[in-house]
Design goal:
Number of strands: 0
Structural class: mainly alpha
Shape: rod-shaped
Largest sheet: none
Order of helices and strands: HH
Distance between the termini: 64 Å
Strand content: under 5%
Number of helices: 2
Radius of gyration: 24 Å
Length: 69
């Protein structure tokens, strides 16, 4: 919108640029984050012993095997 009225009314076009930027950051980004995070569980992001072992590559399936020695 700001590009199309740039030649006619500069003040209005600058307001449209700002409104678009604010709209993206305050509306579009949170909505997309909510949509993506609906499938995730909060316990996946919490730091507990099980997740620490996963990050280190020492999951329960590998713990205590000969490859760890």
């Amino acid at each position: 919108m700001g590009f199309s009225i740039n030649e006619e009314n500069i003040i209005l076009s600058e307001k449209m640029y700002r409104l678009g930027t604010v709209g993206i950051f305050l509306v579009a980004m949170p909505l997309s984050s909510i949509k993506v995070s609906k499938k995730q569980e909060m316990k996946d992001y919490m730091q507990n012993e099980e997740n620490i072992l996963k990050m280190q590559g020492k999951g329960e399936e590998n713990y205590g095997t000969i490859s760890d020695v």
